[in-house]
User: Fold this.
Amino acid sequence: MRKLPNEQLTNQSEVDGDPADGPERTCILTRRTAGRDALIRLALGPDGQVAPDVRARAPGRGAWIGVDRPTLEAAQAKGKLRGALTRAFKTGDLLVPDDLGERIEAALRQTVLDRLGLEAKSGNLISGSDKIEVAARRGQVRLLIHAADAAEEGRRRLDQAWRIGSDEEGSGRQGLVFPLGRTILSLALGRENVVHVAIVNGAAAARVGHAIDRWRAFLGREAGLGAAPAEATNARDVNV
Assistant:
């Protein structure tokens, strides 16, 4: 996951007691710190099983990771993840599921889909190429999202309209590419054939952009252009 240029290395603990306690956490694999929203919390259940807690709401103690899925799975295959979790939770009586990376990805994906659904219900989201193009040229679009299977021509047309409406012609600014195709977007919004989505509220754009960036970062992809900035730790900084 990504790292800010001025990221500070501190001695913050990698384990917390209260999920809302403190502004920063330390990745148990890289030992680098970042804001809680940039990392992914792992919770230890009463049965000793480690589970993703991407919304940082589960009770009890949690450990934090700031790496992408390939790096996490490499560390798990070499036993380094279990060792880090054992040190973080101060117990060897824990179960790390073999598909932990898949579970984290699924949880991040569901968080994005839930967020999109909430913003749609709040009236902060519009779909349909023609409606989006009009809103974009009027400067009303705060975040533009394209399904992974969107046609290149359609993406270019809406990107251009967004740049014009934002007075950013020539900037190369592009919409954020959703990691999945139109079928998933359509299901999340309860609409048919959703290929492009526009967020027309600034705070909503920050929420959606951040959620998608976290998902994309865990997949090992760069954050999308136009998405809300978020701190994260560089996956390449862990030696697995």
User: Anything to note?
Assistant: Residues 1-13, 224-240 have pLDDT under 50 and may be disordered. The first strand starts at residue 15 and ends at 16. The chain has two domains: 15-88, 112-219.
